[in-house]
Design a protein that fits this description.
Length: 75
C-alpha cells in the first residue's frame, strides 16, 4: 500500500524528493501518512478534495485484495 501511495504522489507533485510516506500496521488496520512539500499540498488535495478522494479510493480498492482496512492521511 505504501508504494502505491508513493508512486501516485510523486507523479502529482513538483518536488518528488520531498514526498514521504509512512505506514503503520495494527492487525488488519493500516494507517498511511503522506507528507509533501507545502507548495505541493494543493496538487495532492485537488479542488474540493477530489484528488485526495481519488487516492483514497484507489488504495481502498487495492486493500480489498489483502483483506485489510486502510486509512490515508495527508499532512
Amino acid at each position: 500500500m505504501k508504494e502505491l501511495v508513493e508512486v501516485i504522489a510523486k507523479a502529482l507533485v513538483d518536488h518528488p524528493e520531498e514526498v514521504v510516506v509512512t505506514e503503520t500496521r495494527d492487525g488488519r488496520n493500516v494507517k498511511i501518512s503522506l507528507h509533501v512539500a507545502q507548495s505541493d499540498m494543493g496538487k495532492v488535495i485537488g479542488r474540493q478534495g477530489r484528488i485526495a478522494r481519488a487516492i483514497r479510493s484507489v488504495v481502498k480498492a487495492a486493500s480489498t485484495r489483502e483483506n485489510v482496512r486502510v486509512d490515508v492521511d495527508i499532512d
